[in-house]
Each structure stands twice: as structure tokens, then as C-alpha cells.
Amino acid sequence: MIDLHERLSEFSYGYGITRDVEALLSSVGVRTVPFMPSLLQEKQVAFDVGFGGRGVPLILQFKLGHSLRRFVRSDKTLPAPSLQRPFFRFSIHTAEPDGQFETLLKAELDGAEAYYVAPRFTDWPHYVQFFESGQVLERSVLITPSEIRASLVAKGLPDGTHRIVYDPDRVHVCSEPTEMRDVRPELMAANILTRIRTDGPSLGHAVHNVFAGMEDRAAIRRASKEVFEDDENVNLDSVAATFGERAPQSFTRTERNRRLIQLKERARSEEDAIAAALGFEFWSLGIQMILAVQDEPG
User: Fold this and answer.
1) Kindly report the CA angle at 140 between 124 and 104, in degrees rounded to 5?
2) Which end of the chain has the least Cβ crowding within 10 Å, N or C?
3) pTM as predicted
4) Which residues of the chain have pLDDT under 50?
């Protein structure tokens, strides 16, 4: 087993992904402006982007996991997923109220492009090689939260702790292995470009809609039950067992409104303040927001 956390940080991996996303979208005429926490320290809060034009928030959740050669399960009646060896695995918690999965899924349903992104490689030398050649994104798996939710529902599986396992060609959600569709980078770029070029909402409206949706993440919540594979690599003590409470890192409505009011006092526009508040809320959950807009002719 290789633990990527020992050799590669989410910060380093996320930097490589963000750089490759910016380059990919630029190649199809889409300009990107990533949210940076340092923006909140500026005297004036302002994004270098036109909120009146068409655009879309792109939301990325970076994941690092393990490289494995054995798939061990407690229920031998369930088939093992068809995977090459080694394969890769990371965990998600789909039942955490206002947690990462619920936030990503709600943002996607409210109009954002949202993806889990994880490497299809095992170590730092590979990362350096792919970083230098601009292939970190190409060598990664992208999965929408809606695809995960649909796969769980299709198998009648409850929300809880699940494992995403994948190889260079296939992706499954477990406990009961269910194959999912991943998204190739070029399809992600095409989706964003199509949304920008069609007669959709302005970027300002899209950001406002996603921000407003953070107030009602419970609307997409399902009944939950803690589920996980019983393999030698799972630390049961690390698995959350209590549901129904607000996630410690999530914002209350009062906190969200207070921050927005403070940002409006320093923001160039109301749209800048809302985008900054949304980016900060995502960032507090370890999620990267990138604003994507149609590039202006030079």
C-alpha cells in the first residue's frame, strides 16, 4: 500500500490541477479566476472578472488516497470490482450534514460545475513528471457528485462513508461495487464552454444562485446509515458515527450573513462580495472555486 499523503500534499496536487485546468480552459477560449484566501486580506475585495457576462463557477475537491493491490471485504457474497492492479482508493462521507459531499452536490444542482479530482499515479516522482509536462489533470480521475449520488440510489445504498476505487480505466463506488462514469478533462472543458456560449445566466447570477443554495443543503439530504468495507486499511475509530448535527466547519446562516455584510463594506461590487463569501465557504471545507468566463478578444 502506498499512502500518497506521505509523499504528496493536497496543496501541491491541487496547485498542479488548478494550473492544468487554467491552461485547458484557456485553450478553448475560457478565462479562469481562482479564489485565493489572500483576497480576503486585500483592502478592496475584487475579482478580475466580469460578473455581467456569461460564466460558471467550477468547484474542485482534491483527494489523495492509497494505491492498493488487494481488495478485501467482509461480505464475501458481494463481488469484487473489476480493477487493474494496483488500483487506487479514497473515502467520501456522503451523510455529513453540510460537509464536503453535500456542499459539492448542492452546488452542482444549483448550477456549478463540481468534481472530485484524484490522481491516477502513486508517488512524488510521477507528480513531478506530469507537472513538468502539464499532464497532472490528464493523469487524474474526475467524478461529479451527482454521479456518485445516482450510483448509490441505483443500488439502494444509503448515505454514509463510502470508498471510491478506480484504476486507469474504471471507477466504482463501494461498499457494493457500482461502476460509475468519470469525466475526461476535455469533456469538462467542453461542458463549461457550452454553458458559457449558450444563452445561460450571467456569472453573477450563477454565483448568487450557488451561494443562496448553501442555506438549504438539507433539501438534498437522504436517510443515512454508516457503511464501509471491512478491509485491513480502514481505521474504524476515524469514521464519524453521529449524524444529524451540523458539521463543525460549516457556517450558520448568521455567520454567513455577517461575513457577507463585512465583505460588502470592502468589495468593489455586491457580486464581488458574494463570490468572495462563497469562495471562502468552499475553502473552509477544502474545496477550490474557480470562476470561468468567456475570454474577451485580445
Assistant:
1) 115
2) C
3) 0.86
4) 1-2, 226-249, 298
Distance of CA 246 to the CA centre of its chain: 20
Q: SS in 3 state form for 112-176?
A: CEEEEEEECCCCHHHHHHHHHCCCCCCCEEEECHHHHHHHHHHCCCCECEEEEEECCCCEEEECC
Q: How many CB atoms lie within 10 A of CB 298?
A: 3
- Distance (Å) of CA 89 to CA 122, 125, 234, 240: 11, 20, 11, 18
| β-strand pairing of 171-174 with 113-119 | unpaired
- Domain residues for 225? 2-294
The overall longest dimension of the chain from CA atoms, in Å, is 61
Please give the Cα distance from 177 to 224 (Å, whole number). Answer: 18
Residue 116 neighbours by CB distance under 10 Å: 25
pLDDT recorded at residue 84: 76
Please list, in sequence order, all residues whose beta carbon lies within 8 angstroms of the beta carbon of residue 261, skipping any fewer than 6 positions away: none
The angle that helices 145-154 and 100-109 make with each other, rounded to 10 degrees, is 100
CB 278 within 8 A of CB 289: yes
C-alpha to C-alpha distance for 53 and 73, rounded to whole angstroms = 50
The C-alpha cell at 257 is: 450573513
